[in-house]
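Researcher: Last one for today. Full complex below.
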Amino acid sequence: MAYSEKVIDHYSNPRNIGTLNKESKTVGTGLVGAPECGDVMRLQIEVEEATGLIKDAKFKTFGCGSAIASSSLATEWLKGKTVDEALTIDNMDIVEELALPPVKIHCSVLAEDAIRTAINDYRIKQGLEPIESDKKHY
Amino acid sequence: MSTAQGKVKLPIYLDNSSTTPVDPRVLETMVPYFTNVFGNAASRNHSFGWSAEDAVDTARDQIASLIGSSAKEIIFTSGATESNNLAIKGVFEMYAQNGNHIISVETEHKAVIDTCLHVEKLGAEITFLKVNEKGLINLDELKAAIKPNTILISIMYANNEIGVIQPIREIAEIAKQAGVLFHTDATQAVGKIPVDVIADGIHLMSFTAHKMYGPKGVGALYVRRKNPRVKVTAQIDGGGHERGMRSGTLNVPGIVGFGKAAELCEQDMEKDTARVGALRDRLEAELTTIEESYVNGSIEHRLPHVANISFTYVEGEGLMMGVKDLAVSSGSACTSASLEPSYVLKALGLDDELAHSSLRFGLSRFTTDEEIDFAIECVKTAVYKLRDMSPLWEMFKDGIDLKKIEWQEH
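Model: Here's the assembly. Have a good evening.
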């Protein structure tokens, strides 16, 4: 399959690979996917408590080039956003930015799930209710 | 990769178990048979036909010499898939009065498995033997599977994915004792390791030119004529070519190339095996220095030019993208969105592992030292890079049991 230039760029030079301290109260972690399905993403955010801004984001992904690129792109987009703004990132924005073919749309869905799961993990640590997603993916 | 890159042409072809390039010496021999000597080998009335027939006879001798048969026992086909079809369907039809049971193995090529499943629909009874974690069959299980209605044992010489060589002589002895015919798909073995149909006790054998530096589109079925005299019912009817077992005008240039390829393999086998085997061993030794990597299949009973290596906690498609400068074959042993799990690797029990992907390397007489250097560096770089970004690898290193995690499947 032919990958887009942006996917190849993220695969070759992934942004923000790494691990944040998942025990920290200001860090939210989202681990989504399953090894049996061929994709596992872990996305982490670190929130600056005074401003509510995401000051750092890290990922590690087991998966194909599109899965790696989707999570790498997500970390780029997360940095500097507020938690509420981060929740507006839509998987179709990722599809568009990376020119993912239809068979790879699930990679973008996984990235969106990872963002949401990380934010909810952070919210729970902060004593807030997790946000239910009403979005339906096909 | 900077050191090796300058010297090699990319991508590097390491998929010779799929097909080999035609040796220039083979091509040279073939060329006149397209234009000058273009006759139909079945034309008995003029010199064009006689010349073509002479060329086919020479090729038959060259091929027979490689496998230790007589020239008359070589039936030309379009390739090993057709040979496997002819052997299995042909025996099933020809020996219907003796029984309908066929024994084969779950790691066979699809050309054997699907042919068995086809005759099963026509009333055959099929037993697929299992293999152990090394890819080898159990001879006692073979003996136990033989029944009064068994007519054929079809077991491959060497496997196309992992290169594992089955105990052919022991299988042949069991078949002989039971009075059952023995067919072997020797596509991967002929031309690479010594194969002798008499010493090995083979009754029918499929093989093809394009895995041994000959052209695509031509293969052969060896059909034994003595002790016992074996017959198969033709699956392609027509002019009665090839002793009535396979009609159709012979592919003279292809057959000439097949013959030359066989001659070169016989002549160079020792030399090629020593050199290519050493390259394979070096590739494998280097790649298994990668932590949590392992060789699939028996190391002891294996073709010299094949290596199949798994790397844990690395996803197959991601790995293929990382080794895009290598033309290799990948089989993900776990179910991934786009890579089919390999049924051969699953048969070895690899599906028990949580996550890994495998690369199959097939070397050839044209593979160079520099290409292997490059391949080693390329695979190492890709695996290390992907593990650096693999959450599963991090968990494994932290001592977390991945099987105990509740994964959120989607």
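Chain A has a mean pLDDT of 93. The first strand of chain A starts at residue 27 and ends at 34.
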